């Protein structure tokens, strides 16, 4: 009985928070986002920007000696100019950092007032001089309380400087799928609320052969739901909302790539099938959607859509690949829209095939309607709650 009462109380509290966010935080324009980087194999001139509202150029690099930023030539003023030719209304943001940049590099900058100021001034100057509409912080792999505190301080000072020098600049960040990446460290949700226009939730890379425990089992790396675990896109979104970030500041990440596993037994080929680890025969183990579609065509692979996890997978022989095809993308975007999220974003555009996933996402969002009933929103976020 106590469990039921506690659950009911939590349900009322979260529903109230959701209702407040819907009433008091006016919806911004929906985000149909996509990241692009120069080495993706897709020229900027070939980007179909009509399918997006926000495009992110990745990445500006942080100089650890000077704390200033630099951009590759492809992310200079030519990128905003190029993508606006097809869609003059698209918002273009310069993304900073990326997964390959150690968290300590950001933390060393963010722990001192002088280096924070240098970083912030450099970012704003770079955005304005190259014609960007905003800045996106891609500081990943935070794991300590100090890193979280320094992140919060950085965001507070960044927004204050933007407000003073360039009030029209959009300020966003791409962060972990959950506000609590480990039992020790929690993201500074108040600073995120106060200072970011929206938060890109990286709801992918949950599992991969390189960092999964033994014995190896095939797993989708970006499932929307997971009946065996709390590691999923919907669980992460729910956790961010329960931490106090309103739905209309959250943008759901979807991957345009997958991970390849080697089956131990070709006859056992579903989710959680025994595996010998990674299979590098397709896309060096991390194939793009384009490479996955070629694999399916060339190998006559079997394709499965699993509606419980909301994922696709395919297999041929001992090769098993978990990924998102159009079915999974459509379901995820519908979930995002119906949950009151601000939108979705994709990593990355060069991995799509003939814009199939991008077009599916854009069309799906355009045909949906947001849910404004907190009771229904709770049920969407907690499909397995009792």
Automatic annotation (TrEMBL):
Any GO BP: carbohydrate metabolic process
PROSITE patterns in alphabetical order: GH18_1 (PS01095), GH18_2 (PS51910)
Residue span(s) of domain GH18: 30-368
Annotated GO MF terms: chitin binding; chitinase activity
Pfam families tied to this protein: Glyco_hydro_18
Signal peptide: 1-30
GO cellular component: extracellular region
Keywords: Glycoprotein, Glycosidase, Hydrolase, Signal
Family: Belongs to the glycosyl hydrolase 18 family. Chitinase class V subfamily.
Protein's name in the database: GH18 domain-containing protein
Organism: Chenopodium quinoa
């Amino acid at each position: 009985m106590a469990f039921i009462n506690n659950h009911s109380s939590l349900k009322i509290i979260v529903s109230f928070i959701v209702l407040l966010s819907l009433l008091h935080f006016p919806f911004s324009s929906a985000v149909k986002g996509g990241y692009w980087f120069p080495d993706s194999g897709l020229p900027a001139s070939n980007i179909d920007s009509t399918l997006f509202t926000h495009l992110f150029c990745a990445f500006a690099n942080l100089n650890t000696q000077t704390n200033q930023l630099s951009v590759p030539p492809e992310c200079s003023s030519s990128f905003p100019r190029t993508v606006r030719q097809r869609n003059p209304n698209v918002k273009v943001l310069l993304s900073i950092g990326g997964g390959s940049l150690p968290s300590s590099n950001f933390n060393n900058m963010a722990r001192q007032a002088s280096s924070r100021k240098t970083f912030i001034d450099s970012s704003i100057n770079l955005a304005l001089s190259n014609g960007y509409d905003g800045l996106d912080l891609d500081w990943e792999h935070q794991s300590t309380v100090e890193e979280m505190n320094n992140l919060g301080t950085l965001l507070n000072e960044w927004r204050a400087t933007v407000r003073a020098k360039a009030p029209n600049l959009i300020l966003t960040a791409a962060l972990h799928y959950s506000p609590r990446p480990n039992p020790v460290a929690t993201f500074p949700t108040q600073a995120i609320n106060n200072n970011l226009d929206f938060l890109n939730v990286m709801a992918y890379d949950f599992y991969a052969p390189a960092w999964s425990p033994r014995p190896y089992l095939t797993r989708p790396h970006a499932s929307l739901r997971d009946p065996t675990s709390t590691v999923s896109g919907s669980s992460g979104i729910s956790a961010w909302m329960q931490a106090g970030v309103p739905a209309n500041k959250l943008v759901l990440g979807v991957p345009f790539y997958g991970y390849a596993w080697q089956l131990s037994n070709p006859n056992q080929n579903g989710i959680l099938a025994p595996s010998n680890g990674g299979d590098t025969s397709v896309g060096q183990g991390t194939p793009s959607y384009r490479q996955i579609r070629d694999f399916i065509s060339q190998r006559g692979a079997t394709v499965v859509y699993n509606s419980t996890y909301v994922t696709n997978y395919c297999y041929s022989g001992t090769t098993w690949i978990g990924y998102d095809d159009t079915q999974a993308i459509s379901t995820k975007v519908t979930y995002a829209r119906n949950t009151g999220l601000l939108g979705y974003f994709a990593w990355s555009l060069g991995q799509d095939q003939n814009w199939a996933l991008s077009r599916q996402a854009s069309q799906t969002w355009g045909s949906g309607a947001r849910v404004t009933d907190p009771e229904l929103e709770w049920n969407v976020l907690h499909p397995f709650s009792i």
